[in-house]
Amino acid sequence: MARRFVIPWVLLLALLAVPVARAASRALIVVGLAGSSENEEDFNNLAAATKKLLITRGFPADGIVVMTDHATRDTILQALKPAQGDTANDEFWLVLYGHSGTSMGGVPAFQVSGPRLTAADLKTALDAIPNKEFVMIGTSNSGAFLPVLQSPRRMVVSATAGDAQTDQPRYPDKWVDAFTENPKALFAWIAARASALVDEEYQSDGLAQTESAQLADPVSGAILDPPFGQNMAAPAPAITPAVAQNDENLPSASDIDIQQTHQGSEWVHSAPTDETKRILAEAKAAPNPDDDAAVVLDQQMKFTVEEDRTTDEVVYHRVYIAHEEAVEDWANCELPQSPPQATTRLRIARVIKPDGSSISFDPSKLDRGAPNMTGDTPGSAMVYLPDVHAGSVVELGYQTRELLDASLPHVSEAIPVQMSVPVLKSELEVRVPVGQAYHVVLKNTSAQPAQSQEDDRAVSKWTLGPLAAAEPLPGDAPEQQWMVWLGISSLPSWNEFAAWYGRISNGSDIIDDSIKKTAADLSVGANTRMEKMQRAFEFVSALRYIAIELGVQGFRPRTPAEVLANRYGDCKDKANLLVAILRCMNVDARFVLIDRGGQTDVSFPSWQFNHAICFVGKAPEAGQPTDLWLDSTDSITPFGFIAPGDYGRQAFVFFKEGAAFRQVAGTGVDISAIHDEWDLAQDAHGIWNGTFQRHTTGLADYATRADFRSLSPGQRRQQIYEQLSDLWPGGDLSGATISDVSDLRHNVVIRAKASNGARFLPRPDFPWLNVFCTPERDRPLLLNDGQQCAGTQTVRLHYAAGPPAKLPPSVAITAAGQTLRISWTKADAHTIERTAEISFPKATIPAADYAAVHRGVEDWTAALMRGEL
Q: pTM, whole model, 2 decimals?
């Protein structure tokens, strides 16, 4: 990213007033081999900034040589030759940015194109220059140069100490910052101030410091540690300026961002300009047919992957705030900031107010954020845009650089392109190294990329027209199936993924005696394979679930013995334990990765999993006629049923011969159902008194357990009364009970006593019908997580005298394969029954069928109301 410096008016005036240094002073700034395009850009920016600061210091522009384009040992040594007129009173500065290592014989060397530039080469060249010399070696391993370059007329600062500090140092960046604070300060003060800034940053980031600068002092002949003999509490000692020669060495206005506010302010307020007025006019004229609260006028995303798989993402949004309700979503921005893993640089944060004036955030004030210490969420830095109202335009642009996670040695990105509000224009660009296996896809759109090759990068570019707002609705399929998203992955294939996962999980499936004994104990008294499996499943389900996914443990399961000893684990730990126990029972169980609640795109090899379960293939000869998908994570999924978020997903199963995808399917009998029974008797006053009872199965049973398991007895009674009062308003309820929700062997049963003098009957309560409230739908409807569902409500009425002579007619409605019925029967001389039923065997309803099913539900509901006695 381009590096710019904000210089307040007072400093600009100082620059204009201070004479420059002697015209004979010279400098050489060299950028060596960078290792990646990101590093090369950073080093080039540092070199450019250093030149400007030397000019500010008083060096003549033509006396500063910057070598950034594949410098070689020979070209550098040529530039280091003495110049005509050099004297001992003049200064010569040498600044190196890049990487250092060790050449043959253990000699420290600066890495350049071709043969390396050794410390001995530099010493010979510098010894020939008669000037006072100042050298800054901004590389790793740079401390090894100091003993070689020491001289009574040469001051040398290195970014690191010795030759064991091999990480890319932060010191060069801070050296430029310190130089910027006071371009007239002594070299030693700049070096000491830079070291202090490095210390502050490591402390702020909460990281162990891996670098420590050193300085070779020409006076004492010693190699000093910070602060290099400088009194940092005192004002910075400055150089003695000479008489100015001309004005051509001063920074031009184009080199300076002038801050028109008090020094230290985060915000810059600007008057209306032609540019801001034009942007506002275009924003107000932008189409917004649905009157969304905001409209994204322009969206730009550029994603670059380096050879070392470091990623660089540039994001820019220009958004029109149409209504006040959108302010909170767009005026507060959380940026990833967890150095060194993820570092974000703010490029622009600006509010253009309705009158055309603007408020811009000073990017240099962005909080450095906090390191990720928990392992679950990254650190972040916040930008809060002030004075944003309806009619404003918000502009936000930032660049995030992220190092490759060592625990997942591949790039794997899924970036949403569609947003919660309309996007009028999108420009997307992805750059990946040529010659490496990369998958770059744009999903759920027919747009095709323009493809090219630039600077050893394969480049894909898309320009998209208007994108509708991505508005998730109840009953939607996973977003991966219908939202526009951009995928980038360096995984060559699913086989490669399986091999990688096999390597990191190697040894995690070891079965010791504790697991064998547990399996044997659970098998005692079990007569069938299915009974053994159920006992193992319920045992593991009952263990505590705790998310403890730090580092490689985010991918590698703990050993079964460790999970058993702890009596807790996360999803993959519990799945691994269940697999181990079942294998000890001679059941061929398999470990499975799955995207619970989402959907894995099997055509896009990448990390798309968030969950782990167990798979047992069918064994009809052993009494298991169908495959079993066993999710033991949350302790409330009954044995044999599919947990919510798993059904219909593509599951990655690890078999003996390799891994393969299988689609999670039910057993054919695992229907989610609600069975309600009201048994009511009428007294002499016409008051109905009786009982209510509810049985649940499948996901309905799961939902009931989830609703009630953490409640106290009093809270459970209150919950039951609330639900029943909706079914039969105006009734008096008492005696509410619920069966043991932790007992997975038996379905949950709710009971209560009821009394009501109303003439209308209790209403059916089938939650799947609630999604049919809208008259039309433009996407498929997924009922009950894709699993078939049914409901039955039986109301049995015992009359004190005789029942009505005429009963309402029965109703049978079939719509797109779904069935809704109402039947009336006379059980005896005093009793009639009404049975209301729904059966949805097709849990996924295409958009084309939605209207028919919606009409069927409406007709069924109307028939219930007409049939009141």
A: 0.68
